[in-house]
Design goal:
About 45% of the residues lie in helices and about 20% in strands. It is α/β, with parallel strands linked by helices. It is globular and about 75 Å long.
Length: about 300
Amino acid sequence: MDPHKLLHLAAIIEHGSLAKAGKALGISQPSLTKSMNRLERELGITLLERKPTGAEPTSAGELVYTHARLIRDEMQTAAARLQGRESQSDVVTLGVLPSLASHIVPVAIAQWKRLYPEVQLRLVEKVQIELLWGLLRGEFDFVIGQTEFFDVALDGLKQRVLFRDHLNIYARTGHELFSQREVTLSDLARFPWVCPLVGGRQRNLLDKLMADAGIQSFPRPIEGGSVDFMKALLASSDYVAMLPEHAITSGMNDIVLKPLPIVIPALKRDIAVILHERRPLGVASLDLVAQIQLTAIQLMAGTAAN
């Protein structure tokens, strides 16, 4: 497939007609029509339905478009990085899990910024798999995420564990489960859950814990990417959730939410800095990683002491 023809296809689908796409691309409509006819002949499929009101993709056209758009986006990203490579030395772009962005990372950044007031920081919260793909595409300098998430498709990344994160099962203080001296997984299965988006280890861990206890069915959980959303839902309902201890920060959350009296050794996860093998970190980024590690250790030590 000729990449130029794929870019033409993407423009036609996004603008809705060959005339508008041709104008945006600086190509005459007859030339664009010829390009699409050749692409369809090469592939042996119809990609566009020509109508009086414009052009619409067929199901095959939609499929090819998803790849054409990725090619175009990658070309634009490469161009932007080449044009801005000299000016990016004073910019650090960090990808982080939402559960870590709620407390540990902000505290660490505040300390780090005192040493690097002139360095611009960009922080992006995403679920783990999106962080890793973004790192491969060069969208982040590094990622703070959890381990045990690699597969063959993610070759080229390396990780170093920074600290161990302990998870508790939380509910609002008035939840009826607090009337019990001990809580079992069977008790928890009677109540609705809120979990990170599908693909996150906490959701997989929940399913595994229930299956190991012989519990085959429990209410389908709500899935969300925001820790604040999860905490608000817990505070106003009978939902329960797994959250890291540091996500329940000082203030009202200490009063409204409490960990349930249940001990599950498996509720731990290793948090690591994840890097691209061919893109070494600068001094400012290395110092930020070190500050995140130090902050996490200090905050969790304080939580344990309390």
